[in-house]
Design brief:
CATH class: Alpha Beta
CATH architecture: 3-Layer(aba) Sandwich
Strand order of the largest sheet: 2-1-3-4
Radius of gyration: 20 Å
Strand content: 5-15%
Number of strands: 8
CATH topology: Rossmann fold
Structural class: alpha/beta
Order of helices and strands: HEHEHHHEHEHHHHEHEHHEHEH
Distance between the termini: 25 Å
Number of helices: 15
Helix content: 40-55%
Shape: globular
């Protein structure tokens, strides 16, 4: 891969492996761990209980054959990988987790979590799929029930004061991450999209939110200082691409890596592991902290929300602010909500904004890498014309 990366660059796999040892040390010190899979889970509640939240393994095909002994083959690879790692006990983070928390973002996950509960205690938050006043109150109640579940399961007490402290800290992390990801607004772009996405994903395995915040702030400042020195020498007029759709960690190499090789600047990430969860903060001045968290998390622009005009509106705004030439939508196979919603994305990007658009439906295997490479090359040619 012909991508210029900093000398101290840590790949996603390296970051995940380093985290294994840190997690082992934390467990030896008596830490209690809560595994999770989704950005809808209110991390502030977990941290307020003195617990350690960790994202669980779900981004490669290694354990999918084992998962398919219990799950249908025509299911989302993220769901199959998540269950496969649990079933084969090959994810250290799952092994070290005392409790797993899931969420009803889709039917596949909903039913998979039932099977996962046979392997390890799994609590499922019932996420509403709308943004009505009724849904907001339902989600507020779910957050309170989640807090009570943690208190009961770990025999702890979680105070509102502790929750507010973690809200403030998590908001700082969102602010720092958003500023880092928005380096893609600079023109020319001073840092590859591959590096930006990897730093955020691998950084989640540091387990110290304070350290994570500082690392992102330091790298942002470093990039900006370097940009001022050499911006005149940076290559200009490279196609500027926004990635949208499903989490891309499991297809990072064959889509993001290939775009970089083809000479694209990946400027923005409208994804769950990109800027989507960082856009809105929890209102620290709201007297009802559970309502504040419910409002923030319910406003995440995931395709499971119906209707979901806010995602289309935000992506349109991104196209303008990032001066994008095209949009690549990543859809994991059998992810029906994103696949259906891609109709609205394509219509806005192609017809309203007049920008290039491509929809890539894929899984975690390498069998379609050649086909994807060819399609991306043709997509890039349409931008260059």
């Amino acid at each position: 891969m012909n991508i210029e990366l900093p000398k101290n660059f840590v790949s996603y796999e390296e970051g995940k492996k380093r985290g294994f040892m840190r997690m082992k040390e934390l467990k030896e010190q008596g830490a209690k761990v809560v595994g999770n899979f989704c950005s809808f889970v209110p991390i502030e509640i977990i941290r307020a209980g003195g617990l350690v939240p960790v994202g669980l393994c779900s981004f490669d095909e290694t354990t999918i054959p084992a998962a398919e002994l219990h799950l249908p083959r025509n299911l989302c690879p993220l769901i199959k990988a998540s269950y496969g790692y649990a079933l084969t006990d090959t994810c250290p983070y799952f092994y070290f987790s005392d409790l797993v928390v899931g969420e009803t973002t889709c039917d596949g996950k909903r039913k998979m979590f039932e099977l996962m509960n046979d392997i390890k205690p799994t609590y499922v938050m019932q996420l509403p799929h709308a943004r009505t006043d009724v849904a907001l109150q339902e989600w507020r109640g779910e957050i309170i029930r989640f807090k009570e579940k943690l208190e009961e399961f770990f025999d702890i007490s979680i105070s509102e004061e502790a929750i507010r402290e973690q809200i403030a800290l998590k908001n700082k992390e969102r602010e720092a991450t958003k500023a880092y990801l928005e380096l893609g607004k600079l023109n020319p772009v001073p840092i590859s999209g591959y590096e930006r996405s990897t730093l955020i994903d691998s950084g989640s395995y540091s387990f110290s939110l304070e350290d994570r915040i500082q690392r992102v702030i330091d790298r942002t400042q470093e990039v900006l200082e370097d940009y001022e020195k050499r911006k005149e020498s940076l290559e200009k007029d490279r196609p500027r691409i926004i990635i949208t759709g499903c989490p891309y960690a499991g297809v990072r190499e064959k889509i993001l890596g290939r775009l970089d090789e083809l000479g694209a600047d990946i400027v923005g990430f409208d994804t769950c592991n990109g800027i989507r969860e960082k856009v809105e903060q929890v209102d620290e001045n709201e007297p009802d902290i559970y309502l504040a968290m419910a409002r923030k998390y319910l406003n995440i622009n995931c395709s499971v929300m119906s209707p979901n005009e806010s995602r289309i509106d935000f992506l349109e705004k991104m196209i303008d602010e990032y001066e994008a030439d095209g949009v690549v939508e990543v859809i994991l196979q059998a992810c029906h909500t994103y696949n259906v919603e891609s109709y609205y994305v394509k219509k806005m990007v192609s017809e309203k904004k007049g920008k290039a658009y491509i929809n890539i439906e894929t899984d975690y295997s390498q069998s379609d890498s050649g086909q994807i490479s060819t399609r991306l090359a043709a997509f890039m040619e349409t931008i260059s014309l």
